[in-house]
Amino acid sequence: MFSKKPPLPDEEEAVVDPFSMSEEDSVQFSIEPATPAPRVLTKPSIISEGFEFVGTITSEGTLNISGSVKGKITARLVLVDVEGQVEGELNADSLMIKGRVVGDVQCQDLNVGPRAFVDGNISYQNIHIQRGGKIAGKFIKN
User: Which of 85, 106, 113, 134 fits a 20 to 30 Å CA distance from 126?
Assistant: First the structure.
């Protein structure tokens, strides 16, 4: 009742029986190189509230700062939480500031939260300042 119709002889679909093939009829297969493996997502690095770090931080992933950092930070995504404080140089693709940042900042996307304070030389491509966010210093659009 619900059977599949067999292919008609004039259709271009051909069925090959590999056991009945001669060397002349052999089929060649090519293996294409595999696409590179996707980048492994890393867990975020966290500077907890009450923790003070002095020095250089470099991360390929996300850095969440709830404590205090003095020095140089380089990361793909940086979140300075409400209790977080950064003093120094900060380089990131995406930067979300809810706390306090003082120093030189270079980023692509900058989001300043409603309780944030930002002061320094700030280079950015896109910026969003929420109502209540306080900014000072020199802002340079890339």
Answer: 85
- Predicted confidence at residue 65, as pLDDT, reads 97
Which range (4-18, 65-79, 92-106) has the least confidence? 4-18
Query: What are the structure tokens assigned to 118, written together?
Result: 């930002």
CA distance 14 to 36: 34
Helix, strand, or coil here: 22? coil
Q: Let me know: does 124 contact 110? Beta carbons within 8 Å.
A: yes
Q: How far is CA 122 from CA 17, 34, 110, in A?
A: 69, 42, 9
Element (H or E) spanning 17, and its range?
none
- Taking a C-beta distance cutoff of 8 angstroms, is the pair 90, 110 a contact? no
State the first-to-last Cα distance of the chain, in angstroms, to the nearest integer. 69
Residue written as token pair 């059977």: 3
pLDDT of 29: 45
DSSP states of 30-78: --PPPPPPPPPPPPPEEE-TT-EEEEEEE-SSEEEESSEEEEEEEEEEE
**Three-state SS at 18:** helix
